[in-house]
Amino acid sequence: MKILAIESSCDETAAAVVEDGRKTLSNVIASQVKEHIIYGGVVPEIASRMHAQAISGVTAKALSDANVDLGGIDAIGVTYAPGLIGALLVGVNFAKGLSYSSGKPLVPTHHLRSHIAANYLTQPSLEPPFLCLVVSGGHTHIVAVKDYTEFEVIGRTQDDAAGECMDKSARSMGLDYPGGLNLDRVSKGGNPDAYSFPRPRVDGSKYDFSFSGLKTAVINTVHNASQKGESLNVPDLGASCIKAVTRCLTENTLAAAEEYGYKKIALAGGVSANSVLRADMTALCAKKGIELFMPELKYCGDNAAMVASQAYYEFLSGNTAGPDLNAYATMEI
Ligand code: KG4
Ligand code: ZN
Question: What is the pTM of this model?
Fold first, then answer.
């Protein structure tokens, strides 16, 4: 079964064709990063407009790269929540149009479920149940993936996401958007013990996270140095920040796996591309005899192949929609 999927929840306009949820036939991404760099983050209005400009061409390329036309597609998947509402609406309306004109079923797909499904594209052996750490720009969740379309959130951030913490810390150090990615790059070789940051804990909820205090601590370190006219060692500060974030992510995830009896852990979301998180998780899981699954780097950030993968399982579960499908800025997984 071939699914064409559309993704437009943030600043990538993407379309892809995936067969039976696992085999990527095409994966096209038009990134808007260059448009948002000067603002230091995504400007929703610009994002919507650029999606509208790019979506037709991106979809046509996804079909031609996969060597199919719309007639050879069995269903159309689309990200409908959560995300920037104006951006989501572009993808949802475009997918509705395609579905209506072609008579193919429309499959609404949750963005975080899709990030989890990114693992299925390169890990043929991965099947639920497993535990997944979902770390994106806006979300930080520990999710029990009980089945392809059945999820339970075991832990979540109570304030900022890990990605937001890294993005804003990076910005305070003068690094370009997307901060997390650039922070990872410049921090290679930095001393992760040069600056000591607190290990935030959340009262009463063992697996929850809190990253806003950490973000403020990093930003304050930068401001204090600049007020005193001191120069900062950006690689050291970046490495220390990444270590502080990664420590929370790995500790909580491994503790949850132990308590809930999971022997398989997956990573998902843009921050799962982080080199330290990947290395630390690999080492810790090996030590504990836990099997670790990570998406290929090209599937960590927003893309439509992961949407097509999840849409396949949603379709099998009967989760289709009609022309009244709407987009939602927030939605539980
Ligand atoms: O999943 P994603 O592409 O978009 C959302 O759904 O939010 O995640 C974007 C986030 C941004 O915060 C970006 O800085 C972060 O992923 N990111 C990274 C790395 N690559 C992307 N964070 C840390 N290290 C990276 N290598
Ligand atoms: Zn995402």
Answer: 0.97
Give the model confidence (pLDDT) of 132-190 as tens digits: 999 999 999 999 999 999 999 999 999 999 999 999 999 999 999 999 999 999 999 99
Pocket flag, ligand 1, residue 190 (CB < 6 Å):
no
Which residue has the CA at smallest separation from atom 3 of ligand 1?
301
Residue 141 Cα to ligand 2 middle (Å): 13
**What HEC string does 209-262 produce?**
ECCHHHHHHHHHHHHHHHHCCCCCCHHHHHHHHHHHHHHHHHHHHHHHHHHHCC
C-alpha 115 to ligand 2 mean position (Å): 6
* Ligand 2 centre distance from Cα of residue 130 (Å): 20
Under 8 Å between Cβ of 216 and 136: no
